[in-house]
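Structure ticket #2291
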Amino acid sequence: MSEPARIVNDSPPPARRPPALRLASAPTSKRRLFVDRAARFVVSLGGVAIIASILGILLFIVAEIRPIFASARVAVERRVTVPGADLGAVISDENRTLVIGLSRDGRVVAVRAGTDPKRGAGNGRVELDRPLATPPVPATATEAPMGGRSLAAALADGRIAIVPVGADVTFEGDRRVTVPRLGEPVLLPMDPGGRPLRAFAAQLGEDGSSIAAAQRADGTLSIVRRVVETNAMTGEATGSLLSAEAKLDRPLATMVFDEEQKNLWAGTSDGGLLWWRLDGATPGEPDLASAGRFPVTALAPLIGGRSLVVGQADGSLSVWFPVEQRRGGPRLTRIHDFPPLPGAVVRIAPSARGKSFLAADARGGLGLYASTSERTLWRGASEVSGTVAGLTFSPKSDGAVLAAGSALVEIGIDDPHPELSWRALFGKVWYEGYPEPAYVWQSSSATDDFEPKLSLVPLLVGTLKGTFYSLLLAIPLGVFGAMFLSQFMHPNFKRFLKPMIEIMAALPSVVLGFLAGLWLAPRVEKAVTAIFLMIAILPLAVLLAGWLWQALPRTVRNRFRSGSETALYALALAAGFALCFALAKPFEQLAFGGSFQSWIHAAFGWTYDQRNAVIVGLAMGFAVIPIIFAIAEDAFSNVPRNLVAGSLALGANRWQTVTRVVLPSASPGIFSAIMIGFGRAVGETMIVLMATGNTPILDWNPFNGFRTLSANIAVEIPEAPQGSTLYRTLFLAALLLFLMTFAVNTIAEVVRQRLRARYSQL
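Resolution: structure written out below.
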């Protein structure tokens, strides 16, 4: 038998693994640890400090804005009783220490109302008591004419008495003393028969002249004007009376003059409004308007004499002013309406410093209102027993005085910004003298009776307008220039051209604005048709140059570095520019009848301003291009080269690779570049300040000027008193800029992250 086969293992024995080498790491030096920790702390502290600074700025802006929309505060400060007086119309000095009023028995009474030592002593002490006429005649009605310089009363014998009143301030040591001033009453005969008058109005002029109007018992309207002439040599003043009469077919309930004695308004018992424009003493024919079916019970013109507050028996309140009609001249028009008071409106007191007014009703209700913003600032009780017979704003508009019988109630008012509301800031408002509601920014005027117009809408539109026209130029040139430089140009050219373009960002914006406003704008005005031709001719010139380059034999093109064709494009652009300027005049004559400016005015109603949105688009686009270019070029250059090489290896040409591989991969960075350019354009100040004319016009016409939020802040903030309405409105504009850039940056970051996630797998 054969032996079983033996299995022999000829493989070599496994080699022994050498023992693992353990490298002993050297301990990190304490100095390096300290430097690393210090650097980490400094970087973290810097980041926290930046966030805290931004939040601090935001909180400061919000704190400055907050008082704009705070509610008005109205509170009773003191009550005074004047024994034996039955007070009607009253006025107050600016410190509300002295109240001068008319009593129903025909007397002028000055009452020391203040009890504060800073305002002088006294608590209802009568400082002056004098009859209006000799012998005394009872008053059937009393009024405090607009201006706060006089009081007027309709006497029972058919005369109207106008008495100049005021207060003089003197100092005894460090104590201020207010002394009443009373002039000689002016008595104007209104009814020869001596009968009581139905309704009356009176006004005292600054030169001593006066005017009165009244409806007699027989319905006749009587107007008497006293004209005062002063001899320039002797200083002697002489007065003469002018009178006029007119028949009325309806009874009047109330009447009032404006401060300049040019307009007379009257309300009727059937809800009608009559308006006379006075020429001398002649009333002429009145304009008639209807306020509704309820009687008009109170009238008061606001400061400036253009707006009229109308109160009616049902408690309704409205503001009217003349509006120019296409035919027939101005017509009294109802503009603003306010929530009605519980009872019939008996007294209206306008503010001497703005378009606010107080209104009291027959049931003891009191309201504070603002005409421009159409706001009800405060509603409450008048705190007097009985019907309010006298109501006046203090000259500083920080308080008011109410009179009823022998009681005087002084109230304090704290409402520094009555003319502002969300509607006044962002909605259409019907301003005095305007034919319709409009968005208007006009923060100042030459007169104290100016109605502030603080709509932020023209500034927002101007900001977006300037940004749009600048990005219209900057985005294509910045993005496509970066694409060409990074993907098509030879690196040797790129090394020189990229710094040259980026250094454009170092040019001060004030220099660009100066050049745009003083050098570029006049030249564009003369060559505006050439610019229109450039929009069509320059792209065609570039395409033609590209076609010629591609038409050259490859052997010829390969002798030049990639990017050398830029010289050909530059020559084509130069030739295109020359052609545009050569064809500008014939093209303007053929297309626009010889004058582009006249053509756009006739065709669209547009005007051509030398400093306009086109100028801003060119100048600000020049400032934004380097930012968009630099960021977009980095985004193109950071696309992995293996993606480009793989696309080319698969047979795609260079253009297909750039548009279908490189551009999607770089899209997050390109979007960030555009958004940063948007933020740069939104916040630009000096260029738009110097190159737009800085006119707050709400118009998308590219040939008009505009004003941006940033430029408006720069122009207005040096002249805005701290804490004023304009001051806080400018801070609101700053908050809008802050929120706009914050929202844009947030949206940009969200979109960028989504684009990065979408194209990260390429």
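Closing remark: Confidence is low (pLDDT under 50) at residues 1-5, 115-122.
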